[in-house]
Amino acid sequence: MELSSDIQELVIREATSRDKDAIKGYIVKNGRDSKTTTFGDLMWHNMLELGDGMLDKHLSRWGNHVLLALSGDSIIGLGIVASSGTDKFRHIGELTLSIREDYWNMGVGRELIQRTILECKEKGVIRKLNLRVREDQESCRQLYKSLGFYEEGTLSRDVCISGMFFSSILYGRNID
Hints:
Blueprint: E1 11-14, H1 20-31, H2 41-48, H3 54-60, E2 65-71, E3 74-83, E4 92-99, H4 108-123, E5 128-134, H5 138-146, E6 150-161, E7 164-174
Parallel strand pairs: 4-5
Antiparallel strand pairs: 1-2, 2-3, 3-4, 5-7, 6-7
Pfam families: Acetyltransf_1 (PF00583)
GO molecular function: acyltransferase activity, transferring groups other than amino-acyl groups
Domain N-acetyltransferase: 10-176
């Protein structure tokens, strides 16, 4: 899918400490409470609690990065890769992706993931990306597969929204 002509301008760039407040605002509005994500409050908590220097600390860890998708001055998407601090798991990055709902199916997610993969290749630390997606998010699953992610397993009843359970599908992609 090409980038939609409805998007006037798309810039994808690495976040800096100056972006802290804008990232917090984006997460509050679009991230942690979304009914379509597999991310809970705990996963977004670290990003919301960014104190002075915390974003820089996250970015300075081997392989970690935060990418912003911007249209004009507005964040319309966010991609976070976090790796373990331990040597034996440092090569694995956990990808957290969020696209503002009014930009779904416009190619923003594809662009953000492709840039994330490129960043991982350039840094040379992350050799495998993992992510999870709710079983009923078929368009997301197709996007991940089209970008080389493969299904690795299922976590049954992983997400509960308003008393309804959803399984999460685990995906992985080798970088090298």
